[in-house]
Specification:
The longest helix has 24 residues, at 774-797. With 798 residues, the chain is α/β, with parallel strands linked by helices. α15 (318-338) packs antiparallel against α16 and α30 packs antiparallel against α31 (672-683). The strands form three sheets. A five-stranded mixed β-sheet has the order 1-2-7-3-6, with helices on both faces. It is built from 38 helices and eleven strands. Helices cover 57% and strands 9% of the residues.
């Protein structure tokens, strides 16, 4: 605790450092407010979230919840270009800030937030703009605590914190506890480079908060008292700014004293769109292990600690009581399926936790002793994926599954209201965690089509509310012949957060989907991915205000010089155009298809020297171009000119040469004899060229398999080819031959076999009968050998 003495013109200011989401911090903060009874409590939190405090402290609002801040930088004043920024300020029952707000409401004390608004933090931060600065991350990210843990024999900062600040701290006097925390924070602050403090916006935030404190102290006068609750890393900075202000008489009214480039931005004001809302949150999202920089691990465990603190107080072994509860709950759930661990194992685990706490010089066993005890007593033998179920159960319970709830007075973004309105219109239970199923027939029922579009939009926005389990999937080009869709949906902890995240993109689900599609396309340079994004827009039924999207996709296709990416884009666009009537989404695909076609025809002559593994993709592209040619704006003559230039290349891939001959034959531009002549060139050439005949056949069969039946020339060449290759060479060519003959139907293969048999004087190919199993064949060979040996012995005897 840092006490700044009052002067003649202002109130006493008391600075209380905290760690966010620390039960011990919340406990001591609440006791300090009760004992000191300040005139005002100023808390670290965005100043423009002040209006949310009545909702946060309402009796019907249940933690965890979060203050959600968003900012749309329309003019690129923060970054180099337009961008969307967002962050969360989570609150748990045992968050010191929430404990202070609730206690102030109970005692009738004025409370308010005093930190910079989120957009000003963004302007002040040179790094980590998507998150803003994080004092707690700096508290635990110093090299100092690495050495500290090494000296104290503890495995991590979290274990160090629990031992000295949580378990031991609950039994300390309030002032002594805050002095210990402040001493630690000062060491960490001194160990942090000044440029890092400045680049993460800490200086700007601390000067702003100091100004707020000074202003409130002057309003209250010399007989008042102001309490400040801030992250411990900021407390030394606040103290320095307040002392300097008294000496230099710095005005506390400036909005944000920023330096360097950001000062001009702050002075001129930011003109983007800002949103501040309260939203339900989940325990999982506040867990430090999930990536939340300012969080503590095991929020479910510390929630239990907080509940026991309020019920029995810190002197009655709250940690050991909580450890016992978790051991019993973990054991009970484990026995439901596997019958272990037993009650005796639970007793052993409790004794193990107590013994570990004693060895580690802890007053009580904590979260780390609980984990070690479960590992030692509940898992028999080696801990593997098949035996670690007790640890997984424990982790889930220590994380917690609680989902917060807001009172009816809470304001929510328009997008979430639109989500709830549409759910109600479709008869969907929007807030039920139980999964439900919907079977839709979108091609024959307009309401079902609207519901399918709604689910697809949520899927695109990443809302984690609904997923398709069966039905056509145009993105994967799968199950297009199915006429029904099966969706499974249900509210999840991440659903609200995801909807809040995308609320910066629009007031309705449709507006957000259109806006997000446009934003993603701005950074895209891949024609295939652009067409995939357009496929999503098609499934979502987005038609309005999509003209900029088409223009962007057209530009990407024009600039992309990768043949296969553009070919995949053309394939998708043709698919979408064919399905317009079925999906009742009519979009101008003709211009995009024309752009893809022209680009591919230009690139085609450069595709003669391809890799073996790219042959299939290239042949599909050649076939696709032939099928597309002849449409308005898609000149087939240009296509055939490109094929002619490819044939002039002496290093043309054999598979492509066969493919081109097949296309020319199918279009009536060459006779069957020309393809046969090309094939005979491979057969009569060098040994290496002979072996490439398999690739040539593969190309011909891919585009014109009826060439085989046009005349007997191809059958004779196939027969000659198989007679010329040796056994080892045949095995090497077998994969290519399988791909080549895979183009034929079973009936056609039987016909080819019969024609081949005719070349050798057989009327038909015998393919009937049942296949012989390898074991039966082996037994037959052994039996034949036995009979042969017996007959030879019989002859010798005769």
């Amino acid at each position: 605790m840092e006490q700044i003495l009052r002067s003649k013109e202002m109130a006493e200011i008391i600075l209380l450092p905290v760690r966010h989401h620390s039960p011990a911090c919340a406990w001591h903060i609440r006791r300090m407010i009760r004992r000191l009874k300040p005139d005002a409590v100023l808390i670290e939190g965005p100043e423009n979230a002040q209006s949310l405090i009545p909702v946060m402290t309402h009796e019907d609002t249940k933690a965890p919840f979060a203050v959600y801040c968003s900012y749309q930088d329309i003019k690129g004043e923060i970054g180099d270009k337009e961008g969307y920024y967002k962050c969360y300020y989570p609150f748990l029952d045992y968050s010191p800030e929430l404990a202070a707000l609730r206690e102030c409401k109970t005692l009738g004390i004025e409370s308010c937030f005093m930190d910079l608004p989120y957009r000003e933090i963004l302007a002040a931060c040179e790094e980590s703009r998507t998150k803003g600065s994080s004092g707690d991350r700096l508290l635990s990210g110093s090299q100092f605590w690495d050495r500290l843990c090494e000296r104290t024999g503890l495995r991590s900062f979290e274990e160090f914190w629990e031992k000295y600040f949580e378990i031991r701290g609950l039994r300390m006097e309030d002032e002594k506890w805050f002095q210990m925390l402040l001493g630690y924070c000062r060491i960490i602050r001194e160990d942090t480079p000044p440029e890092q403090i400045r680049s993460e916006g800490c200086e700007a935030r601390e000067r702003f908060m100091a100004g707020k404190l000074l202003k409130k102290a002057r309003e209250l006068g010399e007989n008042g008292r102001v309490l400040a609750v801030t992250g411990g890393f900021h407390t030394p900075g606040l103290e320095e700014y307040i002392r300097k202000s008294r000496e230099e008489r710095v005005s506390e009214t400036e909005p944000a004293a920023l330096t360097g480039k950001t000062s001009d931005r702050a002075a001129s004001g930011l003109n983007g769109e800002e949103g501040v809302y309260l939203m339900p949150y989940s325990m999982e999202e506040t867990d430090a292990w999930s990536g939340y920089a300012s969080g503590m691990p095991f929020p479910g465990f510390y929630q239990k600690i907080w509940e026991k603190l309020e019920h029995i107080g810190p002197e009655n072994g709250v940690y050991e009581e909580a450890v016992l509860d978790f051991l019993i709950e973990t054991g009970r759930e484990g026995r439901q399926k596997e019958g272990v661990p037993t009650a005796y194992d639970e007793i052993c685990a409790l004794e193990q936790a107590r013994g570990l706490a004693m060895l580690r010089e802890k007053k009580e066993p904590g979260a780390w002793e609980l984990k070690d005890a479960v590992l030692a007593s509940f898992i028999k033998g080696e801990c593997t994926l098949s035996t670690d179920r007790p640890l997984r159960i424990l982790k889930k319970r220590m994380t917690g599954t609680r989902l917060g709830k807001l009172c009816d007075q809470a304001q929510v973004p328009p997008l979430i209201r639109d989500f709830e309105r549409q759910c109600a219109g479709f008869g969907i239970r929007s807030r039920s965690a139980l999964e439900a199923k919907r079977i839709l027939t979108p091609f024959s029922n307009q309401k079902h089509r609207d519901e399918s579009k709604f689910f697809n939009r949520l899927l695109f926005l990443g809302a984690d509310f609904a997923r398709k389990t069966r039905g056509p999937d145009l993105r994967l080009n799968r199950d297009r012949n199915m006429m029904r869709e099966t969706w499974v949906y249900g509210w999840r902890p991440s659903t609200g957060a995801a909807l809040m995240d995308v609320s910066v993109h629009g007031a309705t689900i449709e507006e957000a989907a259109v806006s997000l599609a446009r934003e993603r396309l701005k950074q895209e340079q891949d024609a295939e991915k652009a067409a995939l994004l357009l496929t999503s827009a098609f499934e979502m039924g987005l038609e309005r205000e999509m003209e900029p999207v088409y223009e962007t996709v057209s530009r990407i296709i024009l600039e992309d010089t990768r043949f296969y990416a553009v070919a995949e884009a053309l394939s998708r666009l043709r698919m979408l155009q064919e399905l317009q009537g079925l999906y009742r989404v009519f979009l101008p695909f003709e211009k995009l298809i024309e752009g893809c076609y022209e680009k591919l025809v230009i690139l085609l002559p450069s595709m003669t020297r391809i890799r073996e593994e790219d042959l299939d993709m290239t042949m599909k592209a050649l076939k696709l171009l032939y099928q597309t040619g002849g449409r308005p704006g898609c000149s087939r003559e240009d296509y055939f000119d490109a094929l002619g230039r490819m044939r002039e290349d002496g290093d043309l891939h054999p598979g492509l040469e066969g493919c081109i001959h097949g296309i020319l034959y199918g279009s009536g531009r060459e006779e069957a004899g020309e393809a046969e002549q090309a094939a005979s060139g491979y057969l009569s050439g060098t040994r290496d060229r002979l072996l490439k005949t398999a690739l040539f056949f593969r190309g011909v069969f891919f585009t014109a398999r009826d060439l085989v039946f046009a005349e007997n020339g191809f059958i004779a060449m196939l027969d000659y080819f198989f007679g010329e290759v040796e056994d080892g060479e045949f095995m090497e060519l077998l994969p290519q031959l399988r791909l080549a003959f895979g183009c034929f139907t079973p009936g056609e293969l039987r016909r080819i076999g019969s024609l081949a048999a005719g070349l050798h004087g057989e009327k038909r190919l015998e393919t009937g009968g049942q296949p012989v199993l390898p074991g039966v064949l082996s037994y037959g060979k052994e039996l034949e050998q036995y009979v042969k040996t017996a007959m030879e012995e019989k002859q010798d005897e005769g």
